[in-house]
Amino acid sequence: MTDDQLLRYSRHILLEEIGIEGQQRILDSHALVIGAGGLGSPVALYLGSAGVGRITVVDHDTVDVTNLQRQIAHSMARVGQPKVESIRQAVAALNPDVQVHTLAERADDALLDELVTRAHVVLDCSDNFATRQAVNAACVRGHKPLVSGAAIRFDGQLAVYDPRVTASPCYACVFDPRESFEETRCATMGVFAPLVGIIGTLQAAEALKLLAGAGAPLTGRLLMLDGRHMSFSEVQVPRNPACPVCGHPAQ
Q1: What is the largest CA-CA distance in the chain?
Q2: What is the predicted pLDDT for the residue at 98?
């Protein structure tokens, strides 16, 4: 670690749970972020500011003026740009030493398998059920920890699914991909602007804990936030032996 890095990350290094060794692990790590919107914005900014060495961001969308109410990595000057490029610029303004690799495309199974293999942690910041299931399946196949977040209206949720931990469920254990339900989107249902910041920041915190080896992650626990009353609740989520993704004998 250089003198400049020792100074930049001094507040992390002062933490007994992180120290020089934990910060070095963060510097040497690679995070994969799926989604560059409301959740992906604070995730990328905090991972970048904390010194995660490499960040790969995947999103096929472009910046729209309606995004600016909550997607804090973007700006009026970058309306019309790919969101991933806007995120790259925002992270570079905070910490130019971080390598940000961007892919302006949809995250299909083949791409996810390739990217997950290279990452140390995956953060699902997408906004639809199909992508969440695809990211989860790739993490199970690749044996990589997944930090999953979601936010709509005033309600948010967060969990860590870690296939390296025998007792850990995967996303499909909790939200069965075989069940049908009505998809909810911000464009039609709305979302309270700070809510995505809260959930995205918590995602970044869980990812950094995993990378640094600090604290206890939310593995096997689903954290839910009611933003109307600013109250948190938590439920234990066990692994489902009959899960179609992680429950078969090959796992």
Answers
A1: 54
A2: 97
